[in-house]
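Revision sheet: structure tokens.
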Amino acid sequence: MSSLQKKQQKVREFLATRTISSGMGSRESACSIASINLALTGTLTDKVPPLSSPVACAWVRIIQDHIPHDMRNSSSWKDELLPQLATCGRKEADEQRRIDLIFAWMWTVLAKLQPLANRRGFGAEWRTMVREKTEAASETAELVANVARVTEAAVAAMWVTEAAMWAAMWAAEAVASKTASSSANAAVWAISAIAGKATKKRMSTLWSEISPVILLAQLVKNDATTDK
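Predicted:
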């Protein structure tokens, strides 16, 4: 067993008896990143572990607070992917690939709101934002969304999408990708302008549809494991 495999096993064994919390949590039940650090160093902190990816950790730090408890504590997230996150590395090429994956995911989530934007009268601006993926287009969508503020309770996607974009923005800032970060930031405010409440069941369905677990599986890969 290699040294990296030993570290992964240490994280896996530690998490076997723990519950992943939202927020930093405690030594008994910590967040995803803090749990890795507790397993490897005994320190309660959500700083990026030495052998992990700043980009992937920035995304995980935000998104894990929003996904359902059962998803955050699923065998895939907790037992399989977090041990890999602990040692996935931070080579420049891998970090850029991760940024690209995160933003592709974010814009896919945004596109799911098109039917709602159409119904509320700003479908054209929303479609332009998703197509052009620029800060200017996002700001325009924000302005028109503010005018047509949505209050209907069924709009669960707003909360999910806002979380997706904050996570993307933090990931971009982890590598000082200012263009990507500012675009995400503008899109975040577009979502905030039309955010509504939703039922727990609908929220859970939407998280399953956009599958953060699948994205994390892609993020923990590095150039030694990514298919060529």
